[in-house]
């Protein structure tokens, strides 16, 4: 009989993939005769000219085991030169690299045929033929066209009584490369029943691990080989820690996973189900990982699902440096009680109290601006923002009104518009310069090194100190800066009439000015003198130089330049 295409189609409908645990192999069935109501396979010989009955399709029924299988039987033991063939339909291999064929059969013992068995055998041959196209023509039956799978004997026993049936099971593996394969059973004089045939291949089953999905993967062509599978991240996850890979062994079991995926921001991980669940409104998840969605912190909201951070309510802000888990905050109010602590002809000292409202933050800093202040005015602390609640401004002009603004700021102040930032201001007029105030005299450079300069000077002229102890110099202030950078000044206070500046830049010209302070206030700054730091010398000897005023000053030897 010839197998028609509807028979082949029915065979392919048997392919089933069951989702099982990753520890177990999975069989993808290509042919299973136990589920077929009719086989109608191709046989040889056939027809009225055949000299033997050959293979005949019958039913094997066992009511106790609920079995009703279609089978092929042959028993031409009374014939000579027996050559009976039966072929399976063309079986497409699909994704298989290695196909298994499982045969359930019985063989009668030749002792059951005493005297009249002419060619009784107790084995049969299993062969296969790979082909790239299924045709309507019968497959070739010449033995040379086939590859042998093996000669099969009854390993579990032959039955030797009419009421005793011993079912043998034989499983063979065949490496395949073409589109499909025919299997053939060849009988040369045995009494055989091919009761059931199953053709399948083994896959490592579809599995999700480390939030990566691995499709069912056929095993390799050799049992000792492994197949490298690459996973695909589950929905709403992304690769973290390397491309997800898994190894499929020849027995259909996975092992040695590496790499993997993590749930994206806005999605939390369900570890048991290996899925990423979107965060509901009112919750968020920041960043990629296994974390759960969290409720929004104070003064923020998540109106939509899948949010990676909560939006601050109107009037509240989040600094880029703040964790997404902290509440949104506000800028502080203005500083309180701005007060003038000291003022003279060139110096003002201000102080204030912290703001009443700090906005929910602890990083309060202050900033002071000044109207009318020129580049020579110096602020102490000499940085744009600072933590202290007082400041000294020096280098001011006498009898001049200055307006100072003191701003309180925190980590979110720069996120608000400038007109909404809070400050307090005060106007201060410096005093008139004292008639007794005078400049120090004879400022001179006593020592120059690669990064050091030493200065010395004489006290103010007589008249600044002629009124008794009240006119005594309380402190000297030395102002210095790099030439060309007069707006970036530094100062040093001392009660001595000399000072050493260290850690200066080599080969750099510096300007120096000195003034004195008595009970009458600060005197005027001396004229600026300039000196360049010396070069690095291998001998390490000091270089001493003196600088005199343009009007002419005496050096330490009494000579005038």
What does this protein structure show overall?
With 561 residues, the chain is mainly β. The protein has four domains: 26-202, Galactose-binding domain-like (Jelly Rolls, Sandwich); 205-263, ephrin a2 ectodomain (Immunoglobulin-like), CATH 2.60.40; 335-430, Immunoglobulins (Immunoglobulin-like, Sandwich), CATH 2.60.40; 441-460 and 472-533, Immunoglobulins (Immunoglobulin-like), CATH 2.60.40. The protein is 1% helix and 40% strand. Strands 1, 3, 4, 7, 10, 12 and 15 form a seven-stranded antiparallel beta sheet that branches. Strands 2, 5, 6, 8, 9 and 11 form a six-stranded antiparallel beta sheet that branches. Strands 38, 39, 41, 42 and 43 form a five-stranded antiparallel beta sheet that branches. Strand 13 and strand 14 (212-214) form a beta hairpin. It starts with a helix and ends in a 29-residue tail after the last strand. This is Ephrin type-A receptor 4-B. Residues 1-25 form the signal peptide. Residues 552-561 have a biased composition (Basic and acidic residues).
Percentage of residues assigned to helices: under 10%
Separation, N- and C-terminal Cα atoms: 133 Å
Main β-sheet, in a few words? 7 strands, antiparallel
Low-confidence stretches: 1-21, 536-561
What is the CATH top level name of the largest domain?
Mainly Beta
The assigned CATH architecture of the largest domain is: Sandwich
So how many helices? 1
Q: Look at the helices and sheets and give the structural class.
A: mainly beta
What would the principal axes of the Cα set say about the shape?
A: rod-shaped
CATH superfamily of the largest domain: Galactose-binding domain-like
Strand content: 35-45%
Number of strands: 43
- CATH topology value of the largest domain: Jelly Rolls
Radius of gyration: 51 Å
Total separate domains:
4
